[in-house]
Design brief:
The protein is α/β, with parallel strands linked by helices and 218 residues long. The protein folds into 2 domains: 132 residues, Rossmann fold (3-Layer(aba) Sandwich); 70 residues, Orthogonal Bundle (Arc Repressor Mutant, subunit A), CATH 1.10.10.10. The protein is 54% helix and 13% strand. The protein has 11 helices and 6 strands. The protein has a 6-stranded parallel beta sheet with strand order 2-1-3-4-5-6, with helices on both faces. Helix 3 links the parallel strand 3 and strand 4.
């Protein structure tokens, strides 16, 4: 195995976080931060300009988001491993990152050890996902088909239908969050979206609509 350090590009639109992580990783043996970027468009320019092994990519950024930037970076430089490091934990973002070519996905708040391990693994050609993300990926692929439910509420996303099903079963927001490995804030946001899309006034009306459609049953 080569003794050369892993060359890393950091991409994040928050300067304090970006520079802090750069200093942290730069202090570790075996890692060299060769460049940083503040948005997706700049990330592509930097990837074209420097020799790197891994790009640590945020998702929500101005000009170009991290998903679009990942897709372009991987298309131009297939040898580059992209680790998505973001606040977002919803399934749509996770799977969008995977489809774009990311080899790793961590939620911000991951420890120094977890980030370093992910960088090393991705540089070696492996796929890496945080424990909570990995559980949800496994759950997604092991879940029964939802085609019939999708026909009833086609305006809802897969995650929103899952949450509506649990709502109809009488689960509270904290219980839904625990069941689906989501944060309470993510559940609240999804519930608000469900109310808007179904054009219902409150939780009780949403439950009635859902149960009429066959959701919430054991």
């Amino acid at each position: 195995m080569s003794s050369d350090p892993i060359r890393v590009v950091l991409v994040d639109d928050h300067p304090v976080y970006r520079e802090g992580l750069s200093m942290l990783l730069g202090s570790l043996d075996g890692v060299e931060v060769v460049a940083t970027a503040g948005d997706g468009a700049e990330a592509i320019e930097v990837a074209d300009a420097v020799e790197a092994d891994v790009v640590v990519m945020d998702v929500q950024m101005p000009r170009m988001d991290g998903i679009a930037a990942t897709r372009e970076v991987v298309a131009r430089h297939p040898h580059l491993g992209v680790v998505v490091l973001t606040m977002s934990e919803d399934d749509e973002t996770v799977f969008a990152a995977m489809r774009a070519g990311a080899r790793g996905y961590l939620v911000k708040g991951a420890s120094q050890h977890q980030i370093l391990a992910a960088i090393r693994a991705v540089a070696g050609g492996e796929l890496v996902f945080g424990a909570a993300i990995a559980r949800r990926v496994a759950q997604f692929f092991s879940a029964p088909p939802v085609a019939a439910v999708a026909e009833v509420f086609p305006q809802l996303t897969t995650r929103e239908r899952e949450i509506l099903d649990l709502l109809a079963a009488g689960r509270s927001n904290p219980q839904i969050a625990q069941t689906l490995f989501l944060s309470p804030k993510t559940v609240r946001n999804n519930v608000s979206n469900i109310f808007a899309k179904l054009q219902v006034a409150d939780r009780a009306e949403a439950i009635v609509r859902a149960r009429d459609a066959g959701l919430g049953r054991p």
